[in-house]
Design a protein that fits this description.
Blueprint (H helix, E strand, L loop, with lengths): L9 E5 L7 H9 L5 E5 L17 H6 L5 E3 L4 H13 L4 E4 L21 E4 L4 E7 L2 H17 L2 E6 L2 E3 L3 H9 L4 E5 L8 H8 L6 E5 L10 H7 L4 H11 L1
Parallel strand pairs: 1-2, 2-4, 3-4, 6-7, 6-9, 9-10
Antiparallel strand pairs: 3-8, 5-7
Helix pairs in contact: 4-8
Length: about 240
């Protein structure tokens, strides 16, 4: 934690293991250290490794550091941009890296910025705004395909890219275009995660928000089965949209 104005250290481990270092991370922020923490193996989507290895409170932990920036990339391109932006940023950063092998969403020349979300899918007749990151962004896109094909319902999908700072302006403007209805989906406990970050951004607005998150201590199993069991997958998203529409 002593690196200041000399090198840019990137510390990488399972995201759950950063909980052991929280005191050092907190003191690093107080000391104005420039440290980049990259946490992999997040959430139930890591599958068979089981709950001891599943980071489900890491976003909450890093959001609680006043000066921290929290990145949550959702494909290889956005991960590369997150690392670049983190290296340019000064302070405590957290990059939440996922284990699954995701399809690439963005073109190599896509421009990203801290605090700026990406509208990944939209139409002129969207009924609900879906907000997800990492595995749940891909689940939201799958749900959007099913909703359009089977139910003739269009939904909008946003990738927040950074959870802190959250892109309040983009979320509010798009929510208003989607009938003031928002569903957040996250591979994380509800406390301190994406849903609460979005809810805070919407606190002064008359916008209905539904949060899908892991709401109990999970078990070990195949990733696809766990995503469905804990209701953060495309099936649960479709069900929630049909309730809200």
């Amino acid at each position: 934690m002593g690196c200041r104005q000399r090198t840019i250290p990137f510390c990488s481990t399972f995201a759950s293991f950063f909980s052991r270092a929280f005191d050092q991370i907190r003191m690093g922020a107080i000391s104005q250290a420039n440290i980049k923490c990259v946490g992999s193996h997040c959430g139930v989507s890591i599958g068979e490794d089981g709950p001891s290895q599943m980071a489900l409170e890491d976003i909450a932990m890093f959001r609680s550091i006043p000066s921290a920036t929290v990145f949550y990339p959702s494909d290889g391109v956005s991960m590369e941009r997150a690392v670049e932006l983190s290296a340019q940023n000064v302070g405590i950063d957290f990059i939440r890296a996922s284990r699954p092998n995701f399809p690439v969403i963005y073109q190599p020349n896509e421009v990203f910025a801290v605090g700026k979300a990406k509208v990944v899918l939209k139409s002129d007749s969207d009924k609900v705004l879906l907000i997800g990151a990492g595995v749940t962004l891909h689940e939201a896109l799958k749900a959007a395909q099913e909703l359009k094909a089977k139910h003739k319902i269009n939904v909008r999908v946003i990738d927040p890219f950074t959870i802190k700072p959250i892109d309040k302006e983009t979320i509010i403007s798009n929510a208003k275009q989607c009938g003031d209805k928002v569903i957040t989906i996250e591979d994380h406990y509800p406390e301190g995660g994406i849903g609460e970050a979005v809810a805070s951004a919407l606190a002064q607005e008359s916008i209905k928000i539904q949060m899908l998150a892991v709401r109990e201590i999970p078990r070990s199993g195949p990733p696809e089965a766990l995503i469905e069991k804990y209701r953060i997958g495309s099936k649960a998203i479709v069900e929630e949209v049909l309730k809200l529409k």
